From TrEMBL:
The keyword Transcription applies. This is Response regulator transcription factor. It comes from Nocardioides pinisoli. Keywords: DNA-binding, Phosphoprotein, Transcription, Transcription regulation. Pfam families: GerE, Response_reg.
Length: 220
């Protein structure tokens, strides 16, 4: 049986690292076309043209972030598998990448063989998490369950206060109304809402409301 070679897009803003990664990917059995992009905007444009099977995506890049690029690529082509390969391993980055639709997350410094296995894994439809990342995801899940008394709390990356504010945002309250209800300053609420947006990887209030309501928040 003949297997169609994989097409892969490598995205990273550091030329030397990107070139080395392209070399690794081109050396993999079963990989055909390999393209590269130097930032998020170029990644989106190239992905729309190439329609790759796998995108290997850095997160911290100038302009369009890897999170937003992942979201845009998958909105157009959900069958593409995104593997995040980044220096960032904090909770917010991991959760935001997975919520954007990434199927894998490993950190730079991984061995070539590990990177190749991760690419093959996400291409096959698996979810691939590096050891440290997998432990973080499990920890976030358990933390959410603990806070909910055995029931998993939505968005475990948010603090209790942030969840409270997000619930009120989902109910349609303005920052001023939330401030009055929680006896906070409007500036504090504004800063909290901004932090929530960052943790959820959303850019607009309407997107945050949609995400919250999808998770069952904002209901009477």
């Amino acid at each position: 049986m003949t297997t169609t070679p994989l097409s892969v897009l490598v995205v990273d803003d550091h030329p030397l690292f990107r070139e080395g990664l392209v070399e690794v990917v081109r050396g993999m059995a079963g990989v055909g076309r390999v393209e590269e992009a130097a930032d998020g905007a170029e990644a989106v444009a190239t992905a729309l043209e190439l329609r790759p099977d796998v995108v290997v995506m850095d997160l911290h890049m100038p302009g369009t972030s890897g999170i937003e690029a992942t979201r845009q690529i998958l909105a157009d082509r959900p069958q593409t598998s995104v593997l995040v390969l980044t220096m960032l391993e904090n909770d917010e980055s991991v959760v935001s990448a997975l919520r954007a639709g990434a199927r894998g997350y490993i950190v730079k410094g991984a061995a070539r063989a590990e990177i190749a296995r991760a690419i093959e894994g996400v291409a096959a439809g698996d979810v691939v998490l590096g050891p440290a990342v997998g432990a973080k995801v499990l920890g976030l899940f358990n933390r959410g369950a603990d806070r909910g008394g055995g029931r998993v709390v939505p968005f475990p990356e948010l603090t209790d206060r942030e969840l409270e504010v997000l619930d009120l945002v989902a109910r349609g309250l303005t920052n001023g109304a939330i401030a009055r209800k929680l006896f906070l300053s409007e500036k504090t609420v504004r800063n909290t809402v901004s932090t929530i947006f960052g943790k959820l990887g959303v850019a607009h209030r309407a997107e945050a409301v949609a995400r919250a309501r999808d998770a069952g928040m904002g209901a009477d």
